[in-house]
Design goal:
CATH superfamily of the largest domain: Glycogen Phosphorylase B
Structural class: alpha/beta
Helix content: 25-40%
Order of helices and strands: HEHHEHEHEHEEHEHEEHEHEHEH
Radius of gyration: 22 Å
CATH architecture of the largest domain: 3-Layer(aba) Sandwich
Shape: elongated
Strand order of the largest sheet: 3-2-1-4-5-6
Number of domains: 2
Largest sheet: 6 strands, parallel
Number of helices: 12
CATH class of the largest domain: Alpha Beta
CATH topology of the largest domain: Rossmann fold
Number of strands: 12
Distance between the termini: 33 Å
Length: 358
């Protein structure tokens, strides 16, 4: 995936700052094991602004709940809406969101520092290794133990560090499970997936939203509903012309297919007049809506992982990124490379997935 120049420059400046600060680090040795019975409060640090990366925390959160139900978790994230996805999970106590460009707002910055330091934790987990922002936040957090994967750019004082790497799983969404090694917790025998633990009430509200949308447009319940999200970062985005061709092929072959365009601040209007539209600022309810539809389709993007974590059936269309590392997790889901496929060919794959048994 080709990154914009400003992103490349930001990454390089961050790497230089980390390398400089690492020169003053006095860390020489680390522990690699934690007594899980001793840990009753955990702070997970992931000050990231991408929905997918925050949803990638859910496998670890769910496994900690299964093995350490006594441990309450707070989480530091970088996006307010995305953070709200995690807060309703059973063992999550509080989510603190750190907005972008906080350094340009000194009063707000000190307010967040006080909020971060208001509680002392048994353990702080830095999910991002040598990330500058993650290490700064980790330095402010008060915790008896601080854990991270090894990175040559580490400069914050950590008590526990292990080698980084996808030792048990190839998919980045499951990398967080590697932190189970600190607690000597066995890895799940069956490959886990993403799961935000939707509530019964959230599912019911989404079901009503879909029913009302269909009724409003005089569409019967015998139709197959496909939720489409057209946005994606940088060159992963698929052109609208391609989506129009795909929809035309899809509905030509099966008139009972209804496409619902998922709108967002970046996509404020629907693609064409032959499809429906839906939006919801509550990302958990949006995920529940995806689950209620017969299929969710998009490129490689955060909402795709939200759909997976909401137990929706997903078709992910990749063109730049590694499908094995970032594809749609789950046996019922499908990830395909569309670089050499026509919209008609993808339309046929879509119909096959729609007609496949649950």
């Amino acid at each position: 995936m080709k990154l914009p120049l400003h992103v490349i420059m930001r990454k390089k400046l961050s790497a230089l700052l980390n390398a400089f600060l690492a020169l003053f680090s006095k860390n020489t040795s680390y522990a690699t094991r934690l007594n899980r019975d001793e840990i009753k409060s955990i702070m997970i640090i992931r000050p990231n602004y991408r929905i997918g990366n925050l949803i990638f925390l859910t496998p670890l959160i769910n496994e900690l709940y299964a093995h350490m139900p006594h441990a309450k978790i707070d989480i530091i994230v970088g996006m307010r809406l995305a953070g709200k996805i995690l807060e309703p999970m059973p063992n999550v106590d509080k989510v603190i969101d750190i907005p972008r460009k906080l350094l340009l707002q000194p009063l707000d910055m000190f307010s967040y520092i006080r909020q971060v330091r208001a509680k002392k934790y048994d353990l702080a987990i830095n999910m991002s290794g040598g990330s500058t922002s993650a290490q700064i936040v980790t330095a402010f957090v008060k915790a008896k133990y601080k854990a991270s994967f090894y990175d040559k750019r580490l400069w914050t004082h950590f008590t526990h560090v292990q080698d980084r790497g996808l030792q048990h799983y190839k998919h980045m969404g499951l990398e967080s499970l590697e932190f189970l090694r600190f607690f000597e917790i066995n890895f799940p025998k069956e490959q886990p997936t993403l799961d935000i633990r939707l509530t019964k009430e959230e599912k019911e509200e989404a079901k009503n939203d879909l029913r009302q949308l269909l009724e409003k447009n005089c569409i019967g319940t015998d139709k197959k509903t496909v939720a489409l999200f057209r946005n994606a970062r940088f060159d992963k985005k698929i052109p609208d012309e391609w989506w129009n061709e795909w929809i035309l092929s899809l509905q030509k072959e099966n008139e009972k297919i209804v496409v619902i365009d998922i709108l967002s601040p970046d996509i404020p209007t629907k693609l064409n007049e032959n499809i429906l539209e839906y939006s919801n600022k509550n990302l958990r309810l949006l995920g529940a809506f995806f689950q209620e539809c017969d299929l969710y389709v998009s490129a490689d993007t955060g909402p795709m992982h939200l759909a997976v974590a909401s137990c929706a059936k997903v078709l992910a269309l990749f063109n730049k990124t590694n499908m094995e590392v970032y594809g749609a997790l789950g046996d019922k889901n499908k990830t395909i490379d569309v670089e050499k496929l026509s919209s008609l060919e993808v339309s046929k794959i879509t119909q096959d997935l729609l007609s496949a048994k649950p």
